[in-house]
């Protein structure tokens, strides 16, 4: 049941912060600010040096068990290319796994341990394969290669597909993605670029709050 609960929590939150940085300490700072700004789903990518240290630190400080707690957050891993990476991240505290592509062995591993897995897909064939493997949410990646109308096109033959665009989602177009049927969105460099450039990590919280507000407004108007 925990997997189903986590999937529902991710969908309820709707915005996933995809964090990359030079050090695990930097990513932890980004995550703290993103959570403070209202983004409660944090994806630490494995491109971060010693990424598992960041996941361990965040997983020890935040919990998905109580949405009313001020320590509520869902910590996951991104850029998981293979089942070995996914398993190491799960042992470090990751509660969901995201990959840039569809690796069937990674999906099998995550299903074995009842961990939500969101693989990257680009084609209808990949989406169908993901559904057949038991994937609950597919990540449309890179999202900047598509327009929001891609989701409607996918849902023509596959209305049961839950799609999360990542890459290319911005404050300017997040509403279009949500209205097109995205169940969640992944936000990457736009969330952190200015903070890294200036050294003012409070800017991450400000941008996070803007994304959460824009998502909720779009969601309300879409219903």
Automatic annotation (TrEMBL):
<protein>
    <submittedName>
        <fullName>Bifunctional 2-keto-4-hydroxyglutarate aldolase/2-keto-3-deoxy-6-phosphogluconate aldolase</fullName>
        <ecNumber>4.1.2.14</ecNumber>
        <ecNumber>4.1.3.16</ecNumber>
    </submittedName>
</protein>
<dbReference type="Pfam" id="PF01081">
    <property type="entry name" value="Aldolase"/>
</dbReference>
<dbReference type="GO" id="GO:0008700">
    <property type="term" value="F:(R,S)-4-hydroxy-2-oxoglutarate aldolase activity"/>
</dbReference>
<dbReference type="GO" id="GO:0008675">
    <property type="term" value="F:2-dehydro-3-deoxy-phosphogluconate aldolase activity"/>
</dbReference>
<comment type="subunit">
    <text>Homotrimer.</text>
</comment>
<comment type="similarity">
    <text>Belongs to the KHG/KDPG aldolase family.</text>
</comment>
<dbReference type="InterPro" id="IPR013785">
    <property type="entry name" value="Aldolase_TIM"/>
</dbReference>
<keyword id="KW-0119">Carbohydrate metabolism</keyword>
<comment type="pathway">
    <text>Carbohydrate acid metabolism.</text>
</comment>
<keyword id="KW-0456">Lyase</keyword>
<dbReference type="InterPro" id="IPR000887">
    <property type="entry name" value="Aldlse_KDPG_KHG"/>
</dbReference>
């Amino acid at each position: 049941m925990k997997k189903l609960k986590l999937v529902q929590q991710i969908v309820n939150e709707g915005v996933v912060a995809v964090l990359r940085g030079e050090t695990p300490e930097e990513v932890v700072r980004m995550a703290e600010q993103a959570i403070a700004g209202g983004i409660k789903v944090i994806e630490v990518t494995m491109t971060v040096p010693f990424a598992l240290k960041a996941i361990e630190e965040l997983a020890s400080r935040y919990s998905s068990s109580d949405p009313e707690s001020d320590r509520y957050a869902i910590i996951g891993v991104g850029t998981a290319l293979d089942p070995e990476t996914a398993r190491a991240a799960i042992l470090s505290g990751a509660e969901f796994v995201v990959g840039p592509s569809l690796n069937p062995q990674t999906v099998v591993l995550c299903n074995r341990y009842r961990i939500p897995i969101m693989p990257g897909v680009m084609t209808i064939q990949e989406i169908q394969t993901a559904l057949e493997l038991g994937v609950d949410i597919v990540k449309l990646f890179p999202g900047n290669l598509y327009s929001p109308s891609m989701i409607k096109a996918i849902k023509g033959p596959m209305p049961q597909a839950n799609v999360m665009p990542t890459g290319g989602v911005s404050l300017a177009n997040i509403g279009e993605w949500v209205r097109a049927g995205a169940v969640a969105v992944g936000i990457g460099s736009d969330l952190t670029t200015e903070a890294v450039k200036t050294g003012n990590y409070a800017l991450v919280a400000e941008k996070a709050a803007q994304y959460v507000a824009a998502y909720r407004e779009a969601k309300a108007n879409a219903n």
